């Protein structure tokens, strides 16, 4: 299982020293140049010189004061921001081992994951583990409208969902990018997400470290599932 390392491989720490890694120096690419392919559960990253690199996992080792290691809405993506890179690398290594043992191709945090003084227990319960998107999984990537009490806001949405075999209901989730008021995370988390011809109630879960927001919904999604 190959990983793209955005930053320096030497910052991975001994726990990740044995992984197959493709190093992309931070001055040669940006995170916003990376794209996740939901059809193959892999990342591709275009460098400054025009190279396109693809791998299952994307690990960001650039130093940052933002302590998040994994976040919902960014599958197969991990951060090792420091300062305790050894402990952060150990946690990422556990996640990759969890992915390998499960036989899955996608690992996505259920919520924001940060390093705690006490180790995370029942690590598998903190992540969604799935295979490549099956035929009954649906994906939407495009323009959308978020409706709040104050009015409509144009956003870009990346959404996917599936019919759950346990409760028989359709579950969808994803990320949105746009200028949302602060109240969306403090007072009004319930919103409506609309695409061409479809709309659905949703809940804004959290803000990602990259300026977007994660949303989830249960029931008919705001995109076609034919």
Automatic annotation (TrEMBL):
UniProt keyword terms in alphabetical order: Monooxygenase, Oxidoreductase
Pfam families per record: DUF4873
Domain annotation DUF4873: ranges: 138-225
Record bears the keyword RNA-binding: no
Gene Ontology molecular functions: monooxygenase activity
InterPro entries associated with the record: DUF4873, FAD/NAD-bd_sf
The name this protein goes by in its record: Monooxygenase
Species name: Mycolicibacterium chitae (Mycobacterium chitae)
